[in-house]
Amino acid sequence: MLGVGAALIKDLSGERNVILGGLALGLSRAEIEAKYEEIVDFSGIRDFIDLPMRTYSSGMTARLKFAIATARDHEILIVDEALAVGDQAFRERSEARIRSIRDDAGTVFLVSHSMRSIRDTCNRVLWIDRGVLVMDGPTDEVVDAYEQSRSTP
C-alpha cells in the first residue's frame, strides 16, 4: 500500500487518483477502467470521488488507498493498520478481501493492534515488541499469549 500512497496526489480528484494508483501498481489503462467501478464501490466514497483528495478525511483516504492496492492480484501484500479505518462494514469487506488474497496463494503481511482482525485474517502471527521478536506461531497461540501478557501487571 505504500506504493499506492506515494503515487497519489491530494490536489487531484479521487477518480484521477484511482488512475494514478492503478498505474503505480502496474495496471494498464484498460485494466484500471475495468476495475474502476469495483474500486470506487469497495472504498465506499462514491459520493466524493470527484472531489480533490485533500478534502477527504484520513479514513476516506485510507479506504481509497486500500481499495486501489487490493484491486489487483498480489504475490505479497503488506497492510499496515489499514483495517483500523472506516465503519464496521468496511472493516468486514477489507478482512474478507485480505482472506481472499491469502487464499489465492498470495502472502499477506498484516500489521495491526486489533486482535480481532488478526484472528479473523491470519493463520500465523509474529508478535514484535519494540523491534524484538517475542513469539512466532499459530494465530490463537500467539494472540492468547499477547492478550495474557497485557492483562497481567
What report would you give on this structure?
Helices cover 52% and strands 14% of the residues. The protein is of the alpha+beta class and 153 residues long. It has a two-stranded parallel sheet. β3 (125-129) and β4 (132-137) form a beta hairpin. α3 (29-43) crosses α4. It is elongated, with a radius of gyration of 17 Å. The model has no long low-confidence stretch (mean pLDDT 87).
What's the structural blueprint in terms of helices and strands?
Elements: H1 2-7, H2 14-24, H3 29-43, H4 58-69, E1 76-80, H5 88-103, E2 107-111, H6 115-121, E3 125-129, E4 132-137, H7 139-151
Helix pairs in contact: 2-3, 2-4, 3-4
Short recap of the structure:
The chain has 153 residues and is α+β, with helices and mostly antiparallel strands.
